[in-house]
Amino acid sequence: MVEFNITMRSLTSDDQRALTEFNKLLSAQNTVERQELSAKEIEMFLKADEDAGLTGMAFEDEDRNLVGIALVVSDPARLKEWFEDTFNADDTLYLYAIVVSEGAQRKGVGKEIMKKVYSTARMLGKTQILLDVNNRNERAYKWYKREGFEELASQVYMVRRL
Ligand SMILES: CC(C)(COP(=O)(O)OP(=O)(O)OC[C@H]1O[C@@H](n2cnc3c(N)ncnc32)[C@H](O)[C@@H]1OP(=O)(O)O)[C@@H](O)C(=O)NCCC(=O)NCCS
Questions:
Q1: Cβ(2) to ligand 1 under 6 A?
Q2: How many domains, the chain?
Q3: Dihedral over alpha carbons 136, 36, 116, 150 (to 10 degrees)
């Protein structure tokens, strides 16, 4: 087992290029629906401050290479707007995206990032993490399951093509 020592810092506008690269990895797994972030979403997290309830977390290895990111949303008002009353927004941290760089995958970095997401959530007084995952992204789906996530029975996206 490789021990991975990662440090966390805020995502900044200097990370724009790296974020675009991470974004490609996000879409690579998904063959049908788009899952990558739009330029507007990327900008939203790069500009985010704590007041906006959006947090861009960046993770570096010992050589200060960026090895992963996690984008989280903690503002209950925003979550209510997005998800209505599906769950208690006050208690929830929404994991908008998590991506580990290709070369750093399968070394425990994702797991370490998750630990930081959990501790951030606890610090904010949250009691649960919510995320959504494209069902074509089998690897991420299984990974989340092993991480202890369970499917919400209450919500399935449906679409009618016109
Ligand atoms: C999903 C994702 C975030 C997981 O990150 P990761 O860093 O590869 O995850 P981990 O290393 O913690 O665990 C993955 C695997 O490595 C293994 N592993 C964990 N720690 C390890 C270690 N120290 N040494 C060797 N292997 C290890 C795990 O058992 C696991 O194996 P498995 O996938 O065969 O079950 C990453 O694959 C990713 O970025 N995917 C593309 C983007 C994406 O789909 N994001 C999620 C949708 S929002």
A1: yes
A2: 1
A3: -30
